[in-house]
Fold:
Amino acid sequence: MQEEKKLKTAEIEKQSHLEFFNIACSVDCVLFGYAHKELQVLLIQSDLAEFAGMWSLLGDLVQPTEDLEAAPYRVLNERTGLKDIYLEQVYTFGSINRHPSGRVISTAYYSLVDMATHPLTNTKNGLHWHPVNSLREMAFDHKKILDTCVQRLQEQVMEHPLVFNLLPEKFSLRALQDLYEAILTTTLDRRNFRKRMILKDWLVDLDEMEEDVPHRPGKLYKVRPQLRKRYLKQSAAVRNGHAA
Amino acid sequence: MQEEKKLKTAEIEKQSHLEFFNIACSVDCVLFGYAHKELQVLLIQSDLAEFAGMWSLLGDLVQPTEDLEAAPYRVLNERTGLKDIYLEQVYTFGSINRHPSGRVISTAYYSLVDMATHPLTNTKNGLHWHPVNSLREMAFDHKKILDTCVQRLQEQVMEHPLVFNLLPEKFSLRALQDLYEAILTTTLDRRNFRKRMILKDWLVDLDEMEEDVPHRPGKLYKVRPQLRKRYLKQSAAVRNGHAA
DNA sequence: GCAAAAGTGTTAATCTTACACCCATGC
DNA sequence: GCATGGGTGTAAGATTAACACTTTTGC
Structure:
């Protein structure tokens, strides 16, 4: 008993000097896409035996020479080629045993990525888009991270013009509403939705119509250019200035 | 040029193996108190030469053997003796140069602490309560952290029954309103404030009156006991269950 | 002309804000 | 009785939610 206590103390003593820096910091990116009227998330196969066959988010260790907030931009860029789009920090996960091969604290970010204009450049390690709502189990605590990010996205999406990266440049209000319904997993009243969007003043009426639709064509809109700067493909300068 | 590149590559190579774990993780706690009708924050003198004479938040490195979220509870407990009260993670700060003596990534938490019933047990290193609104400069990036936490507190405070730790068990609506005004740094309409509080159903009318006031005494209220459990002094079990 | 989706307005309910007078107490 | 803050209600405005019919196109 006494012996055991002494050992423990010694161990803690040792750790307090050598192992404080034995915690690694990583980022995990929840990259949301949109296809087939469903919200998608970019996943990769876990390379750990413990999680064989399970999907994981895109993550990487934070480099000693990069700002924490630069790390998810790097991951995003490495995986999709995208450089300067909206990324939001959501939460930091740090349970002792969340990573089987060591102590890793991970900060989660989410972003919205246009799957259509940024096709994956490779499918190594099973990199692929997966419908968010058909995911049950994931590697690490990534299901929890994903859920937290989906919730945050849902909270933000009505207040901020985030979603326009997920649509082509020209889109109909119906397409926009479909997207919102996919994100919020509800149905929305068409008239109220249109009123709200008009009120928000995020859209520019293009005076163009849908073509080749088997019904009455809808008007086409685009997002106001200023908003594109702020939330979508934006300059590095703006991005850095935005960091909280 | 070529030489330099080679060196850099070698350096990065080295870092990728040895120095990934050379990033330390810490937590910084923004402990809010309330006195003299002002929001206060618990500060300590910075022990670094770089920040001589400046105040800093209470922080500590995350132990290798504790969950990230356990760390702020430990810091809180070490400084105030409080064990189980509401702590919310706010944001993680990780600029390369935020800490002069090494790479430290810090996750910020805030909490609300009753200064009256939990007086400081020591004033070592200048530990003291400081009015939030008279702080200009702080050590590290702690002013930014503080500002972020104040903002989060302001966002949360009307939606959640957070503030009752900052008042005695029995309080008048006026005292409650003073507190809200201190937190939000606005004035509030008395009638509308009272209506809102009644609507929220957070309070129990004690059928008692203020005493020894030089004017008409007000009714006394307490917070509903269930809410005390959820947000205030709560059991460790509840706390652990609450972690996001 | 039929199927399919676009487009459009009004009403009721709710919530938010602004605002003024009488009341109870200590001195 | 006077100074101080306690206590109360109402009306206007803004926001949100519910709801149905006509129009345009492709086939």
